[in-house]
Amino acid sequence: MGIERTFSIIKPDATLANKTGAINALIEQSGLRIIAQRRIRMTKVQAQQFYAVHSERPFYDELVEFMISGPVVVQVLEGENAIAKYREVMGATNPAEAAEGTIRKLYAKSVGENSVHGSDAAATAAEEIPQFFSEDDIVG
Ligand code: ADP
Ligand code: MG
After folding, report:
1. What angle do CA 50, 88, 11 make, to 5 degrees?
2. Radius of gyration of the chain measured on its C-alpha atoms
């Protein structure tokens, strides 16, 4: 708790649908601050390493291919209780189960192409942020 940082990705379905700004508006309306942001194309190795925890799941190859299918926007978000708060703003993994007003309810196409990633715990955020940002990139 307290002021935390979390790692966010706006996924290719959302960047290709021109939803980067709409998603950033929802993030900022929630009180979270975007303290680092970069639009990139993930390499296959980056996507494989980022989702290594899911490497035994049946959807892993499809997930990696999806994450490199278009540009993504990687971000660091900061705020009170940022990790849990962003998970709330995102909504459930499966958009069919996501609450009204959440990013995934509004924009996600499917459980796979679900518009955003957010760290699920403090330890995960601490591992994920340095995969894409150095401290110099982050302006809190
Ligand atoms: P979350 O992103 O909500 O933390 P998970 O960590 O369980 O969800 O899964 C990581 C990502 O893998 C999801 O955001 C989604 O893109 C993809 N994914 C999860 N479950 C499935 C599934 N059943 N079929 C296809 N892709 C999935
Ligand atoms: Mg997850």
Report:
1. 40
2. 14
Could you report the per-residue pLDDT of 4-46, keeping only the tens digit for each?
A: 999 999 999 999 999 999 999 999 999 999 999 999 999 999 9
The one catalytic residue among 75, 117, 118, 128: 117
Query: Is residue 60 packed enough to be buried (19+ CB in 10 Å), middle (13-18) or exposed (0-12)?
Result: middle
Closest atom of ligand 1 to 87 CA is 3
Q: Is the CB of 112 under 6 A from ligand 1?
A: yes
Q: Is the CB of 120 under 6 A from ligand 1?
A: yes
Residue 101 CA to residue 107 CA, distance in Å, equals: 10
Task: Specify whether the CB–CB gap between 83 and 6 falls below 8 A.
Answer: yes
pTM of the model: 0.98
Tell me, using a 6 A CB cutoff, whether residue 70 lines ligand 1. Answer: no
Residue 54 falls in the annotated catalytic set: no
